[in-house]
Model the fold of this input.
Amino acid sequence: MIQWGASHAPDKRHNSTMTPISISRPGTIFLCLALCALAIAEDRPVSGKDVAGFEPVDRAVLEFMDRIGCQAGTVAVSEDGRLLYSRGYGHGDEAMTKPVAGDALMRIASVTKPITAAAVKNVIREKRLSLDTKAFELIAVKPPGGKVADSRIHDVTVGHLLEHRGGWDRQTAFDPMFRTEEIERTLKLRRPARPVHVVAYMLIQPLQFAPGEKSIYSNFGYCVLGRVLEKVMDRPYAACIRRSVCRPLGIDDIMLGHGDPNRRHAREVWYPVAEDAFSLEVMDAHGGLIASAPALCRFLDAYWISGDRRPVGQQADWIFFGSLPGTTAMVRQRPDGLNIAVLLNGRRDRHFNEDNDVLKKTIDAAIDKVNAPR
Done:
């Protein structure tokens, strides 16, 4: 099974395309490729332990960074709870003076969603919640003016939210997670909007389809799941994730990110994006986490990307992307049992769907070479 995700992306996938290059002598092609790979490697420092056989992974990440014009990247590969490979590439600061460590913290955008789903499903497993729980009745957020715009919102269940069946279609309407200024004006807020304010705003907006009728990718649905977790666990979203998912696995490197550079973690990289481009804090449960690639691999060892617990030794085929301006993230669970996390502080805004396809294919091809008989 393959699952895709993006914090701000069209739902439709695009096939990747490559521009053909015409060179008259075949031998010249191989020379050019070798020189290009060498130039890429020399331009960017590489940190972490060099493991024999994983050279194709280094080349794949470095070449993809070059493709999207990215300054910092990390990759990690694990299997059955063992970290096999962890590397950092490039520089983590704007001045390009600090090499990126393999465990550098980076925004993960929609890769946040599998972690939110895991916490929600843990609470369901503990029988503190059910898939049939009416989400808006539980969180009890009051609509401005006291009346909801669409009574069908009372039918939205936790199960609908997990499966993107809540009733919102950002293609025919809008994505409220990127409308914080409008929300602040409408609600007459004197401070930056928080996730609960987005929920209140959406209570006075109509649904685009009946809950459960179909599945359309929704950032807002996962924003609501964050509020569900807060209500059931009686603590802020970040603390819910820490207690339910991270602490039992011994993970310290998954946490809430901040838009303000002065509030960022000392190990977090720089992003080539204006500070006011979007509100990272308001995205918490759908796209606001930061993490290291090894921490994500530890999560992938224990949970499927769906958020269900992963039985020891079981294998499947999953992939999920996170995408924001200045951020590309990919987590991958392969049929051979290997888990891969790739984090990058860049994105080609007009081409990220095709770039995601390329990233998946090139990383898979690199791992196939690592696994090839010698």
In short: The longest helix spans residues 352-371. The two ends are 30 Å apart (CA to CA). The CA atoms of residues 105 and 119 lie 21 Å apart.
